[in-house]
Amino acid sequence: MENRRMHPGRIILALYELIKNSAIVFIFLFVLRRGSDAGWVVAGRWIFIAAISISILNIILSWWRTTYRLEADSVQIDSGVFSRKHRNVPFRRVQNVNRQVPAVLRLFGLTSLTLETGADGEDASVKFPAVTKAEAARIEEALDGYRRERMEAARAVPGTESVEGEASEIQEPLPEKARTVHFTAQLKDVLKASFLSFSFIALIPVLATVYSNIDDFIDIESRAEGFLSFLAGSGFVMSITIALFALAAIAFGIIRTYLKYGRYIISSDDERIYIRRGVLTEQSLSVRKKNVQAIQITETPIKRLLGLAEAKLVTVGSFEDNLEDISSLYPFLPKQRAVELVGELLPDVRLLDGMERLPKAALTVRMLRFPWIAVIGTIALYFWRPEFPYVPDWPFLAAALFSFTYLLRYFDYRNTRYAIRGPLVQFRKGGLWRETFLTRREKVIEASASQSWLQKRFGVATIGTTNRAKPVHVEELKDLPGAAAEQFDRWYTERNPELIPAGKEAEPWKTLQSES
Prior knowledge:
seven-stranded antiparallel beta sheet, PH-domain like, 16 helices, disordered C terminus, transmembrane helix, YdbS-like_PH, globular, alpha+beta, 4 domains
């Protein structure tokens, strides 16, 4: 296929970023200091103009010199203005696909497409910053076509395995285009999210940043002191000001939350899970169900009081920094709805009821463990000895720290549960914050069981699982009965025969490894 360039809208997007990053310097040099003839101001203007001119030229040349080409099994990318770089990214390494539509691209009907791989560093993703929606669809279709060809080749030759152990991924059904919508955020969901996420508090750092930037150019500290003195002199004016600030903070929080979580839609077909959110900047994620390694359900103290929970997909591959939380199935769902949604999206994964509690010996072991954090905190309090109004002396603070530590251990013991049933294993743990982890046996790439000296004396053990993710996801559950650790050993070693290489026996690993 022929080489192609990104849409010229890539230039506009880059210019927008340039203007946004240099706006403060421009305002200072050409607006606030417009009448100044000082040498450093004049020199700063010329340096600014030169830097902007070079940046614009680099943006245009970078767009012109960057090309890509779709092959049958990979995407080829050539970039670099003076020093050329060639990248060859095989389609078999692509794990997730996500789209972002910034407000600037939305005006031109464009989108940004990113193919996430399991690599590190610069090779972690392949990004198309500005392409038409038709071109994005063409790229995704090339990826799907490659997978279809591999599946047909595997069916034509029974027993054929792909390189690098991808046989299980080949044998999936053809993707269905019809999607089922499972969740759409309503106005009540956005309002609930705005208050539970405390987004209204974000107005404070925003105002502090604005104040700091303005204070660098204009001395407003004296004016602010005069305004505060005026407020302090009138209780009525102070009350009105506080009320107006509270209303502004609430409005800011609702608008900010709506822009992020508005139009939140979760849908799926036979092969993929689709998550889309955002109003001005639209973000979307496409995850293959085969790549979902586990489910995490998190309940913060406030969410537990309100019966809410956040279900998150643990998937193969990585995400960009601003997309880390998009794998969440809406963070403010009622717990029962979150559980139902997991079952709808992943029919082979069901949260288990009737989980087992830890034995009383586990509580003894947890209470006997050395409280490192409390001891270090006490030492810090002894040397620091803070003296604050209405705050007790350091011995009382140290006693409170120890009491809080052991109280958390007790709550963690009460909340910890486990279930090993069929192909599923499920952990629940946490003191004030509660987390439930669920995965299937074939998704676990490594399992472990161990006993410390203390655990051995009380007949309990620690088990853990490792799942493919970016970074690798490790889950651990402490102080289970020794019999449960043996059950976990059998559960993992009795995996499906297709997971064991032909001609090899499954090698049972030691049930308990003694730790020094």
